[in-house]
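Quick log. Single chain, no ligands specified.
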Amino acid sequence: MTQAVNPGTITSSNNEGDRAKRSLSLRRYRIIVWVAFASLYVIIVTGSLVRLTGSGLGCIDWPACNEEQFVDVSTPHAAIEQLNRLFTGVVAASVVAAVLAALFVRPRQRRLVRLALWLVGGVLAQVVLGGIVVLTGLHPLSNMGHFLLSIALMYGAYLLADAVSADGQREKPARWSTREIRASRLFNLGSPVVLARVVVVLTLAAIVTGTVVTGTGPHAGDESAPRFDYLITSVVRVHSAAVWLVVIACVWLGWLLRNAPNQRLQRAFEWFLFLAVLQGGLGYLQYFTGVPVPLVALHVALSVLVWLAALRLATTARRSAVYGTMA
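-> predicted structure:
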C-alpha cells in the first residue's frame, strides 16, 4: 500500500536544504575575517611608505590623481600614491565581503554583522579622510586623524577576529558576573583586569603622542607640506614619557602576575612586553640615528602590533576574571 506524501513536508525539506547550501561555516568565515584583518594592517604600512618616500602629493587631486588623468603612474611618487589608493579598493572589498559573509554564518550571530559593518563604515571614512589629507596639502592634523582612524579600524578588526575565535565563541554575551564587577572597579589597581585596561589606555596615549612627533618631524610626505610648530625635542620627551608610563604599568602588572596560574594570561603579557620593549628600543634607535626611513617604517608597523597585543592582553585578563584559569 502506497503511503501519501504531504507536499508541505517536501517544500519544507527543500527550503531547509537551500538554506544549508547558502550557509557558511564559522571556520570558513574566519578565513574571510583574517583576510580583511590583514588587508587593514597592510594598508597602514603602505600608507606610511607613501609619506616616508615623499609621495604624499604624488597625486595632487582626489579622487582623480590629477586634472588630466584619473590614474597616473608616470612618476615614481605618483605610482606609489596611486598603488596605495588602489589597494584601498582591496581593503574595501575585503570588509564588504566580511559583512555579506556574516549574514550566511550559521547559527546567525548579529554581533558579527555589527562588527563587520563597523569596518565598512571605518573604511568609507578613511577614503573621505584620505581625500581631505590630499586637499589640505598633507596638513599634520589630517594626517594624524588618518592614522588614528586606522588604529580604531584595527580595534574593530581585532574585536571581529576575537569574536570568531574559539575563545570568543565559547564566551556567552551576558551581564557581568559579580567576580568581574569586583575585579573591574575603576581604581582597583591591584586587579590584573584593571591594570591591563590601563596598559591599553597608556598604549593609545603613546600612539597619539607618536603621531604628534611625526607631525613635527621631517617625514611630512612632501617637502612643501606644513608641519606642527613645536620643538621636536619637547614632543619627543612627551612621547617618551607616555612610553615609560606603559613600561611602569607593565612592571606593576608583571608583579601581580608573578604567581598567576593562568598560562594564557602570562603568555599575553609576555608577548606584549616583548613587543613594547622592542618598539621602545627601536624608537630610541631611530631618534639617535636621524630617523632613517627603514627604521621609521618598522616603527610604524610595530606600533600597530603593540596596539593589538595590548588589546589581547586586556581581553585575556577579563576572561581570566570571568571564567577563572584557562590554562
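The CA atoms of residues 28 and 105 lie 9 Å apart.
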